[in-house]
Specification:
Blueprint (H helix, E strand, L loop, with lengths): L34 H14 L7 H18 L2
Amino acid sequence: MASRPPKSSPVAPVPSTPAFVVPAPNLAEAPSIPHEVIAARAYEKFVARGGEHGLDVDDWTAAVDELGSRQRRGF
């Protein structure tokens, strides 16, 4: 009697690389904004959009962009 081939696994294999890659910031071009100032602005953004969790990196990045833009304009 011939043996049957093994059944395939119902679980998909895990990819060896992440689904997305976040580029590292260019620190040489980053404005020198105190951490506390960025954190306060990111928190303001978090509260303004209703306190939805999971978007902390977006809030932080937007705060850095906004504050850096202000700093470059001299505000």
